[in-house]
Structures
1.
Amino acid sequence: MMAAQTTANEMAPISELSDAVCRNLIGVMTDIDDTVTTDGQLPADAYAMLERLTEAGLLVVPITGRPAGWCDMIARFWPVAGIVGENGALAMRYDRKARKMHRTLNMDGPLRDQNRAKLNALADTILAEVPGSALASDQQYREADLAIDFCEDVEPLAQEDVDRIVSHFKAVGAVAKVSSIHVNGWFGDWDKLTMSKRFLSEAFEIDLETQRDRFIYCGDSPNDAPMFGFFPYSCGVANVADFLGRMEALPRYIAPSHGGAGFVEIGERILSARKGLNNG
């Protein structure tokens, strides 16, 4: 069951997120690119907010389209409880006491290899048919998907070109999701939400279906729509407004600032309401 859908006119300012909701939270899940980051950079105060939320006793879990290679580093070094990567293809959790990485993948090796061959062929087609597009610079670190860059390290493409990239994925039966920088595509039935449910169940014995009101999800772009539609207290940074009309679901609340500054505003609202709880 999905949360009631929010329209553009119904997105409330983050200041209206109630103290009661914030004090009832057990976790914060967040996209990374253009949600925690700003213009491709990780601001010090946004990174510090991840640590502050963790120190307040919350499970902090980035949910990203970034690749497995990045996820390994983030799970090890960032102040987070774990990470879901490649739009739900995988999850990682680093046990710091045991010094052991726990990995969850949505497909076995042989199937992953078969799908990789199909995605490689599709990449050749897309790059030939959509001038100006490119493989994402982090493609070589990916386990399960294909990321086509339309504005991270290339000149920004027109919206019709982004739509053409999506059409190429769909034409061969692949799933395609648009982030703020890439079109990610894969063969499989997962997304950010399905792996988030699996990860929290296996790692922390949390049933996200019944505990969704105890988490906040933060995001900014169309590939966050499944999360925005699921969590009743989802939050967007201000740049979510750039995608109005192109998202299946919108966040319930919106921060006044873009990117990392907006994430900090969301975190400050949560922490201010939780003073006196745990270590917050």
2.
Amino acid sequence: MNVNLSEFQYITSLLKRVLRGEKPEELPEGLTFEGIYKKSKFHHVSGMVFYGIEQLGSKPSDNILKIWRQDRDKAIARDLQQFHEYGVLEQTFNSNKIKYIPLKGIILKKLYPSPDMRYMCDIDVITEENSHHKLRDLMIQNGYEAEHFDAGNHDEYTKKPIMNVEIHRFLFSDYTFGGKHFAKYLKNPFDFSKQTEGFRCELDSTYFFLHLLTHAAKHYINGGVGLRAFMDIWLYYKNHNEKIDLDKIGNILKDNQYKKLCFDILLLSQMWFGDKEWDNSFDEMAEYVYKGGAFGTVKSSTHNEIREKGKAKYLLTKLFPSYRTLAFSYPIIKKIPVLYPFCLILRLFTKPIINFKRTMNKLKGLFSFKK
């Protein structure tokens, strides 16, 4: 996507004013509402940006305004349905005596001026590892389909039209490119939480913030992380800074090569949404965030992985993934390990066809890489 940094800077300004309850600035000369809408949609913040747009003296055309308002209204409806379903999930966990910790969006939504402002793709919770087979049956009873089970670090459940639930066994996969750098932290998050009501547990504020920073860093490494993550981090720190021990987080990450990235993410959130003065050394990082949209790009992910591994090792790991990586796509090899080579051959022939667009983007990233 072509990037007009002035558009993104205005979007960031609108989001900041909405978060702080301040009147937004009018659309600067040279920018268009259509461009602002498209880029805010790219970062999954169009519904929240509309709260700023409707306060402006100069409004978009009726057509764009209508589409924009629909995004906001859909976000409100989505939020109501997600909270209803989360209530059902909590009842399920409590009635079956399953300990759980709510993660990310379901907690962070409460910090926004209106919870629908924080777009949430899925409901994330982590439960005790020995509960997952029991939970699969319970989720199916509640009308969900198991999209992925017993593969990776979480099980994925869906219910039409919009519900997605991720039930985690652990927070990071130690065999994926970004996740492996943070997998050793919070291996058992229940050790850093307290039981509050029923079987619900809440992470200590310092460790919740540690997860926010490392989760954002993981996505940054994997190809990009959107503006939502920076708003989340700023809001949580603003509301809980007295309970957050940054020195402890620094000590936990002391040997991690991405420790600086984690703290730079915090600084960038404070410059965008707080009162910290802009530091020009963050220009390149800001542009990377802007270009990546809500979920980053395959090209950036490919370049980052090649930088770390080198081209030869990158190609080898893609052509011949490890047993654990392959088991994510072919769980049968967990039960029948001798099928590993057969699944490897099957993958070589089917993956480029099934994931054609992603495969082509990886190849483009490979050939466009420059040191």
3.
Amino acid sequence: MSTIPKSSFEFLKNLKKNNHKDWMTENKKEYLRNEKLLKTFYAEVVERLNEKDEIEKTKVFRINRDIRFSKDKTPYNVHRSVSFSRSGAHRRGGYYLRLEPGNSLMAGGFFGPQPADLLRIRKEFEMDDQEIREILSNPDFKKAFGGFNEKYQVKTAPKGFNKDHNAIDLIKNKSFFVEHRFTDEEVFAADFLDKVVFYYELLRPYFNYMSDVLTTDLNGVSLLDD
């Protein structure tokens, strides 16, 4: 079973101190060596997820930053991130992993959904919030993730929704993802792969619910082609 090499974090720490092209050019071999090891780990995550799910795509985010519209002109990200997309229109939701010294986490769900999906989710909560609350309040789920991040909420009720609705705390969300953070010691531990997969699998009932919501209309009629 693959592990995360400590050298990858040493590289990222040094990059943070020397975030410029000359340093990266000088250390490109080390960067590529660590990337190869990380991609081996990502492949094992996919293999494990495919035991109970179906992964269509692995996206390794570029280390180069898009600085065109940013005040921060440092050219490189000081973390390594990857996402795993589920296969098929009937499987909604995605898995995410961020590796960064002192700031590593896994996450999953729906970050910044398209307007049509966002409205459909809000309408579902408006009509019936019992099932989603049962999922969010499950002891294992709650212990692992807490709940949706209130940072990604509108300040008041979205247009067309009653600010006094009993589900307004859910309806106000703009994103519907949860996360779990890891210490550096956990990242380097031999069982880190097991832990990542464990937390991903805790998301499955949530993904099943949201997949049903996003592939049906408010009457429960499928939106997918037969």
4.
Amino acid sequence: MRIPSRNTRKELFSAYGQILAGCLIGAAAYPTFLIPNRIAPGGLTGVATILNHLFALPVGTVSLALNVPLFLIGYRTMGKVFAFRSLLATLLFSLFIDLLPLPVISDDPLLGTLFGGVVLGIGLGLILRGGATTGGTDMVARMVHRRFPFITVGAFLFALDFLVVAAAGLLIGGSEALYALINIFISARVIDAVMVGFTGNKACFIMTGSWDSVSRRIMDEVGRGVTHLTARGAYTGEERPVVLCVASRQEITAIKQIVREEDGGAFMFITEAHEALGEGFSQLDAES
């Protein structure tokens, strides 16, 4: 029998740790913010929230009952590892919604929408980082896409969310449906932030004739490495290096000052580097 290596064990521990933490955090959004304010944030959990409002059925149990059959239908569209992790995440997420002994934090619909979206987004983002999902709808969406390629996975999931929000508008109330839309938007943005990282790193591209002195000063004074990219000016046809440097938000001011002092006529643009991995930044490994 093959014994997992130390790195593999570390990666597995990290992945399942993120899934567990994500399930705890994401599930906490329901009893504290979403269920008390009758907010149905899309997906089958949103369907369960509507049923909770109509028939007082437990959200987690209903969500689990809806999701498991979809996993059995669509698991073949996924790898075994992803399917297993997703099934585990769905079980934990659904159970935690009903079992976590958490009080209602806010019965104000707007606060519930905003903070519920943030907490739910953090939880779902961690689950995704752990290599799982909490909805059998994802698997069915991929199965539908394979059968009907013109229907994208995103379009299928969007249609499901739209139907859930529309149902919430009809069965719960128009205001609750609008709050649900806000909640879906916020949670999606937070998921993206969790997936790509919260760091404020920037990528600087500097085009200057003083590329050598600019590069040396950045390395010596800022302590960041630089890379020279070969570029050709369309107007002059001349080749010259473009200085590329990834730095933290706090270091950008010093880099701009160096460029200003070395070449006042330089051209420089700065973009977001959502996640920087490797020397000088976060460790580059499979769990990043």
